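Lecture 7 notes: from sequence to structure.

We start with a single chain of 393 residues. Read the sequence below before looking at the structure.
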Amino acid sequence: MPPAIFVLGLAIFAQGTSELMLAGLLPELSADLGVSIPSAGLLISAFAIGMLVGAPVLAVATLRRPRRTVLLSFLVVFVLAHVAGALTPNYEFLLVTRVVGAFVYAGFWAVASVTVVGLVPSDRRGRAMSILAGGLTVATILGLPLGTVIGQHLGWRAAFWAVAVLSTIAMAGVLATVPGGATEGGVPKLRDEVRAMANPSLWLAYATTALSVGALLVIFSYLAPLLTDVTGLSADWVPAVLALYGVGALVGITIGGRVADQRPFSTLFVGLAAVVVLSVVLAVWTAQPVVAVAAITLLGAAGFATNPAVNTRVFSLAGAAPTLAAAVNISAFNVGITVAPWIGGRALDAGAGYSVLGWIGAAIGVLALVTVGVAGKLQGVVRDEVSPAASAR
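Now the structure, written as tokens:
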């Protein structure tokens, strides 16, 4: 793997830490800014909205610019947004900085994805994407708890400064390792990018993306109260279980990256089927601590194992016009991240117990399997599958 791929993974780690760490800093933000906990929670929603919109808008706006220049520009804005956020005493201004930071973070994801697959042969795309997306997985394992610890002991502003410093280091790495100059293969044309979006199989792939992450997030978003209220663990055990989930995710995305290039459909079928089974296990045996913790760990592995496959399928279907397609895939991820937890929240508000989250996750996982099956039929996949390189041809 070229060094640039690891550097871009580091940049995703830095920005992903910012995306995740607010979940552990809401009490500090609420007290310091004089707002309620729900109002502080809107800072998380604002980030999700910024990412949902930012990827396709910035992908189109920067289509004809050299990718290294674009990546550096996004990181500069991201750093400045965090410096401004760390300095402001104003909640409303902080809300704006979160939207701006998420907006360029989404654009960075889209352009970094295209850059990564352009640096490796087609039979290594899955592995390369697993390294890039692995930055967010490591942010889940290390960035989230470290950001929380820094914020709790030094103030939430210190966590923002830490993200700004780490992102600045990533900027130096991008400048040193990512090739500059014109995009390989000539300047992309918006017309070609839009034409590639007319492929029905591409929209099926987006549906798979949104549903696969939704099946995971509807459970993950409520893991803490599930573990304390139903499984019966003390709050002190929650970080350890989240860490196990993160370790499972890292193992899963590593394995998925190794096999997704040769067997994308098999990877999706096995991973999603495991998500469905494990979600049912959680729904039925939530009150059994050993079973619940084991299922949560394996759920992280199964869910993240599908990540390289959903990404490489989008690139294979987009062919020579991947930028907008990759950007919309980032938006599809955020649709799943936003909508599935909302559905779970509505079920809980209606009086259902936390075990219902497992049933909802299983149902979403089954829908994801249906999209994979339909896509396989469209592409003539009978017993195995065509590789990304073959499907691009």
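The chain has a mean pLDDT of 83. Keep this in mind for problem set 3.
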